[in-house]
Amino acid sequence: MLAQERNPERSASASRVQFSKRQMFGLISLALLAIAVFLPAPSAWAQGCIVARSSFASLGPETQGGYLSAGDWEATVGFRHQYSFKHFVGTTEQVQRIQLGNEVMSKVNLENLTVTYQATNRFSFTANLPVLFASRRSNNGFASLHTSGLGDMSVVAQGWLWNPRSPKTWNAAFGLGLQMPTGKNDVKNSVIVTPGGPTVEVTPDYSVQPGQGAWGMVMQWQAFKDLGNATTVYTQGNYLMTSGGNNGVISAHGGASANQPAATAGLTQFNAIQDQYLLELGVSHPAPKIRGLTMTMAVRDEGVPVHNLIGNDLGFRRPGYANSLAPGFVYSRGVNMIQASVGIAMVRNRELSVPDHMLGTRGDAAFADYVWQASYTLRLPHHASPEP
Predict the structure, then answer these.
(1) Is residue 318 part of a domain?
(2) Interval 126-142: pLDDT, tens
């Protein structure tokens, strides 16, 4: 997030001075991961049993290396990994699940390809293509379930509040986009679920399905403030607003292993279409004596709300959130950038869903201890600019 202006009319010396002055501006957004999540377009979303289509938030070009100039392109390859096995009811960990050996374990690897075109100095367009590889099994179960495939693609338009060519110690950007149901939400496995038993067709849990099966609107934002002494504070967030209701896929909670509806038809019979969100607040500062390296520290809140913004809230869902501390770094050199961070879970909360309230039930959800994220970005400037 090197907030760098590219002006071919300036001398090489002046360009280097300008780059140094604005370098920290762009570094802030970097901690935002161009996402996985890139936000599929949505964003770095919730984890574990809550939802597994997590990704980086595609908040625009400045997220990966500073202000782009009109006509510039940028491509990012991102990766997110999480292993969920600790169950929570509310904020209370269900330690007996591990003691009894019946905890559910989910491994999720999400890869994203994000391409951004800078239409003008202020406005850009980003397309995101997520690919999911996941597995899920109960520790006392006989079979492991696997899913893979293209996730839900998204296209987002973003604009900066202030023209990047006007020197500012702060700026903010807002994005609006569309997520398309390109990922399958009913991937099936043919497995043997009991020793010596027949092969049956099983639909894995919705949390490891590549897609959600619904259209969504992506709303995102980011902002930064230069505090002086090369220190920058930043914030970013995104929200995926869906149509609500259910996607017509029989819930595993209701016996999907046998493809049978749940007993509570209409409430948890089918998987819910769920909103998702991510909020982040952090600080960045250049590492001493290592040119191009910036250290970041952020706090994140990501999850699935109990209520969608629109539509009904029925169907099976595991609402909840995870609050994490996320140290990371960004290394930038020329047109290349590498970013990595690890989210360390501090608070995990499986909230009551609307059907839970109506039925008097209390479900749990598995969360990860750590969420690992990394990305590589290549910038393709329309006009060549001097090396910093």
Answers:
(1) yes
(2) 999 999 999 999 999 99
